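Q: Given only this backbone (214 positions), what sequence would you predict?
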């Protein structure tokens, strides 16, 4: 991308500059629910979009929420070129990118290119940090590039009643401190589950008495 192209963003169909927005928060805060709602709202206005995801809890190419909503989606494989995906269509006005924290950094750069060079609105949703409270590389790049970054305001609570901020990985009733950054849990086939904790109890590894045996 040249300097001149970066300064001359293509206008979107609505006659304005396209935007890259990143919505983040811990699990259970409604990220996928909002993604599905935004897709519905844009579609109602005659806009054409694509819904993307990676490592959805359903195990398939879907966006699913914990309150039972769901929609078929395109699975973002590691080598998928998002610019090529979009430009292969006659017209795409927007992208819904769920679980964007699991995309590659190169794919986040491609999302920015779609906004700046092709006038496509991009709405990305995901976690900010992993089970160790270390930021995902893709999430970090979204924080750096996004036009707008929003922490979702749906209140998620730790077992102690404080606001839940961090996701703990639980294996055999014990909070894990090491392991692969991405491990899918909370499924019937997985021995891994995740639990939202406040900062104090995440640092202490305290899952709360009622939940330790789960």
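A: Predicted residues:
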């Amino acid at each position: 991308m040249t300097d001149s192209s970066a300064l001359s963003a293509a206008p979107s169909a609505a006659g304005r500059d396209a935007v890259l927005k990143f919505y983040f928060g811990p699990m259970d805060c409604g990220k996928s629910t909002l993604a599905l709602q935004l897709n519905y709202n844009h579609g109602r206005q005659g806009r054409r979009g694509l819904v993307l995801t990676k490592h959805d809890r359903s195990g398939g190419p879907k966006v699913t929420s914990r309150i039972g909503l769901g929609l078929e989606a395109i699975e973002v494989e590691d080598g998928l070129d998002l610019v090529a995906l979009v430009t292969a269509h006659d017209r795409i006005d927007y992208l819904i990118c769920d679980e964007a924290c699991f995309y590659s950094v190169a794919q986040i750069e491609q999302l920015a290119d779609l906004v700046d060079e092709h006038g496509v609105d991009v709405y990305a949703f995901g976690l900010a940090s992993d089970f160790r409270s270390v930021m995902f590389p893709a999430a970090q790049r979204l924080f750096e590039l996004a036009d707008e970054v929003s922490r979702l305001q749906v209140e998620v609570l730790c077992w102690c009643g404080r606001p839940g901020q961090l996701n703990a990985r639980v294996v055999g009733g014990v909070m894990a401190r090491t392991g692969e950054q991405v491990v899918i849990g909370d499924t019937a086939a997985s021995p891994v589950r995740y639990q939202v904790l406040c900062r104090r109890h995440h640092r202490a590894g305290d899952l709360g008495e009622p939940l330790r045996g789960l």
